[in-house]
Structures are given as C-alpha cells and as structure tokens.
Amino acid sequence: MHSAMGYVIGLLMVCLPCGFISASIARAKARRGARWFWAGLLFGPLGLVGAAGMPDRKSQVWLRYLAEAQGYQPRHQKESEVPE
C-alpha cells in the first residue's frame, strides 16, 4: 500500500510541473495552454517535449506577412481565399 502511494505521489511530482510548464510554453507560442497543460499532465515529459517542439505561431504569421509583402503567392489557396 505504501509503495503504491509513493508511486502516485512521485508521478504527480513529475507530471504536474510538466503540465504547468507545457501550458506556459504553449501560451508563449500563441497556442492553447489548457490543452497543452493536459498533455503535459497525462504524458509527463513527452507532453513537455511536444510543447517545446511546436513552431511559434507568431513567427509563422510574421514570416508569411513578409513573404507576401515581397510578392510571394502560395501555390495552393484555401477555398475561402479563391477569388470568384
């Protein structure tokens, strides 16, 4: 009984901080922090690695803006962007 309790406490001591750190990283990258909190809580360090490995949405938007300002046109357009 005591070893099971120690296992649960140890797991919480690892996964709970991973959840909070994953959420913090996700919010800094303009992603949904609540979803990444749960990913970090459920998957522990793997959720943390996933949040850290995501591309930054702000930089993606900025790079696209710069490319379009230089005259870049994407090969494929979304249906909502197709001119009629």
Helix proportion: over 70%
Number of strands: 0
Q: What is the CA-atom radius of gyration, in angstroms?
A: 20 Å
> What is the CA-CA span between the terminal residues?
69 Å
Spell out the helices and strands N to C: HHHH
User: What's the total helix number?
Assistant: 4
Q: What shape does the CA trace take?
A: rod-shaped
The main pleated sheet reads as: none
Overall SS class = mainly alpha
Strand content: under 5%
- pLDDT averaged residue by residue: 87
Low-pLDDT windows of residues: none
Written description of the protein model:
- The protein is mostly helical.
- It is built from four helices and no strands.
- The chain has helices spanning 2-28, 33-43, 45-53, 57-69.
- Helix 1 (2-28) packs parallel to helix 3 and helix 2 (33-43) packs antiparallel against helix 3.
- The chain is rod-shaped and about 65 Å long.
- The model has no long low-confidence stretch (mean pLDDT 87).
List keywords for this structure.
rod-shaped; 84 residues; mainly alpha
Short summary of the structure?
With 84 residues, the protein is mostly helical. The protein has helices at residues 2-28, 33-43, 45-53, 57-69.
Which helices and strands appear, and what pairs or packs with what?
Blueprint: H1 2-28, H2 33-43, H3 45-53, H4 57-69
